[in-house]
Specification:
The complex is a heterodimer.
Chain A: H1 2-27, H2 30-36, H3 38-70, H4 79-91, H5 94-105, H6 109-133, H7 137-145, H8 150-180, H9 193-201, H10 205-233, H11 240-243
Chain B: E1 2-12, E2 17-28, E3 33-37, H1 44-51, E4 59-64, E5 67-68, H2 74-79, E6 81-85, H3 96-100, H4 102-106, H5 111-125, H6 129-132, H7 142-154, E7 160-164, H8 172-189, E8 192-196, H9 200-206, E9 209-214, E10 217-222, H10 224-229, H11 234-240, H12 244-249, H13 254-260, E11 277-279, H14 284-293, E12 298-302, E13 308-313, H15 325-332
Parallel strand pairs in B: 3-8, 3-9, 6-7, 7-8, 11-12
Antiparallel strand pairs in B: 1-2, 1-4, 4-5, 9-10, 12-13
Classes of the chains: A mainly alpha, B alpha/beta.
The structure holds adenosine-5'-triphosphate and magnesium ion (MG).
Chain lengths: 244, 333
């Protein structure tokens, strides 16, 4: 109950911030700029979406299987390694990763996608491992005792019961990625960061906000949409955890 | 039938080895419940889980219905043995119906057969099949969840069941009720059951035999009456405790006592105080408690038709010292 109230409060605050942000953008002429340069804006937005989409997709495809793999009995020894790598990786600033990758791969679109992919891996990997390891061991024991094969245990028990954590990791990762992708411009990857950094260097708040505003809205929109999708995908028996 | 022969389990870890089960030999007959009893850490769970090969055996053999378990595929073996654990292990992502049909599903039964079996099992457990079909485990009480756990283990009608403290987490009243239901069901299904417990009363109530363990060794295997009336050693005597004479009374009913009385000794109802009555099928432990609360030390015995068939007093309990439950069936007939 208290959790619900807190959630509403936070939502209301967030809503006010967004409204204020919109008002600010309007006052500084960002909307005017956006309308005047609609083609450019849409082009950059498309670039941004491509960066986020591709790197996030590749991150999911890589991190979920790796997370599952290191929780298998055979690789149990390495799972601390993966968890620690994921945790430490997360503390490195995104800008540092971008710089680091750039020194090896040079500048350009591929570098940007690779850096974003690397940074997106971590939350997904960490949540996949935590989700599988937090499953009540008696569930797995019962499955084994009734004669399920290891792959049946994985598909029918472990993945469904860890799905909440895995999807939450994916959602967090994607939302962070939308913000981080704004930095891609710095290494020649394009995207809405173009407007933001141009605005900053020209000291023009209007231009800066015409890039920052779509990034913010995109992050919020994706968060909401992915949240709805979670409710849709997660087995009904586990939905109780979503409400409390 | 389940036969253990020189079964030993040694756990090896980096700095020490634990002999959890030490050279155990005994057998459990078909259709009987054998309760594994003993203090915490004596190896009950370990021995149980070796039967369906969840724990690899160190040495010795275990036969289930004449087949050595290591000659069988472990997956197929497990599907042919019911398995119930204390924490229920119900799958939270599946509905009650899906939970119960896990093993039939693994065995590839068709839909119609599974549905029929689900209905059958729910009726057997005293739960309405349609009411629970689409519900999830967390929506059920602890007692209901444990019933579903038992139903799930019975689903594919395995000849053998392994149960590790299945009723251990329930409160005493619910536990008592589930134990009674379980005995009623067992009367019909006649499974060979290994049942882990650390509660002597539960073991006496449910066990056809009791296997009592101490630190991995089998102290005594026998009927509850044997364990209570002829403890083999100090440990068993101490484990069953000073209340053993009283506990033993719960193995008998009033019917056993009445049939033992000499017709000459049978007291007629006459003009006695008959406010205190006991039914023929009451167990003697409860009956004794009734007698003790009766001011005259006597109580009337009532048969199924509510007719008073006699009167017993505390002194009549002396008759029981020489009788064992194996003799009582012949005595009644
Ligand atoms: N995986 C393991 N590794 C090492 N030792 C173990 C392992 N599992 C159990 N043991 C040890 O083996 C002994 C028997 O354990 P077991 O779980 O069979 O006891 P139990 O009789 O079921 O006890 P309880 O009534 O507490 O459930 C204990 O001393 C325990 O510490
Ligand atoms: Mg145990």
């Amino acid at each position: 109950m208290r959790g619900k109230i807190a959630e509403r409060l936070i939502r209301a605050c967030l809503f006010l911030v967004v409204i204020a942000f919109l008002g600010w953008a309007f006052a500084t002429g960002a909307f005017q700029f956006m309308l005047d340069n609609l083609d450019d804006l849409l082009h950059l937005l498309q670039q941004h979406l491509k960066l986020v989409g591709l790197s996030s997709l590749l991150a999911v495809v890589a991190a979920v299987p790796i997370g599952i793999l290191v929780t298998r009995p055979r690789f149990k020894k390495f799972d601390w390694l993966a968890v620690n790598a994921a945790n430490i990786g997360q503390t490195v600033p995104s800008l540092a990763i971008l710089a680091l990758v750039m020194t090896y791969l040079g500048i350009g679109y591929v570098t940007a996608v690779f850096a974003l992919w690397l940074y997106s891996l971590l939350p997904i990997l960490r949540n996949t491992i935590a989700g599988i390891e937090s499953i009540n061991p008696s569930i797995i024991d019962a499955g084994q005792g009734m004669g399920m094969t290891p792959s049946q245990i994985l598909w029918k028990l472990e993945i469904p019961n860890a799905l909440f954590a895995i999807l939450a990791g994916i959602r967090t990762s994607i939302v962070i990625n939308v913000g981080t992708a704004a930095l891609a411009f710095l290494i020649g990857g394009g995207g809405l960061g173009d407007l933001i950094f141009t605005g900053i260097s020209l000291n023009d708040t209007g231009i800066m906000l015409s890039g920052a505003l779509p990034v913010t809205l995109l992050a919020i929109l994706l968060d909401v949409v992915l949240g709805k999708m979670e409710k849709w995908i997660i087995p009904k028996g586990l939905q109780r955890h979503l409400e409390t | 039938m389940i036969r253990f022969q020189q079964v030993t389990k040694i756990y090896e870890s980096a700095n020490k080895t634990v002999k959890a089960v030490n050279n155990i030999t005994f057998q459990v007959e078909e259709g009987q419940i054998c309760v594994f009893l003993g203090p915490s850490g004596c190896g009950k769970t370990t021995l149980l889980r070796m039967v369906n090969r969840l724990i690899p055996i160190t040495s010795g053999t275990i036969e289930v219905n004449g087949k050595e378990i290591h000659s069988l595929d472990p997956i197929a073996l497990r599907r042919s043995i019911g398995y119930v654990i204390q924490q229920t292990g119900l799958f939270p992502n599946m509905t009650i119906e899906e939970n119960i049909c896990v093993v039939p599903n693994l065995l590839g039964w068709d839909r119609v057969k599974m549905k029929k079996r689900y209905n059958e099992l729910m009726e057997m457990m005293g739960l309405n099949p349609d009411e629970y079909r689409k519900r999830y485990p967390w929506e059920l009480s602890g007692g209901q969840q444990q019933r579903i756990g038992v139903a799930r283990a019975l689903a594919a009608d395995p000849p053998v069941m392994l149960m590790d403290e299945p009723f251990g987490a329930l409160d005493p009243i619910i536990r008592e009720r589930i134990q009674n239901e379980f005995l009623r069901i067992q009367k019909d299904v006649k499974k060979t059951i290994l049942f882990v417990s650390h509660d002597l009363d539960e073991a006496i109530k449910l066990g056809d035999t009791i296997a009592l363990f101490r630190s991995g060794e089998l102290m005594q295997h026998g009927t509850p009456d044997e364990i209570l009336s002829q403890p083999k050693n100090e440990f068993v005597a101490e484990f069953v405790g000073s209340e053993r004479a009283l506990k033993r009374l719960s193995l008998f009913t009033m019917r056993d006592l009445v049939s033992r009385l000499n017709p000459a000794d049978r007291k007629s109802a006459g003009k006695r105080d008959l406010r205190h009555t006991v039914h023929m099928d009451t167990n003697l432990r409860t009956a004794l408690s009734v007698l003790l609360s009766s001011p005259t030390g006597e109580a009337a015995v009532v048969d199924d038709n509510g007719q008073i068939s006699g009167v017993v007093s505390i002194a009549d309990f002396e008759r029981l010292t020489g009788i064992h439950p194996s003799e009582r069936t012949s005595a009644v007939q």
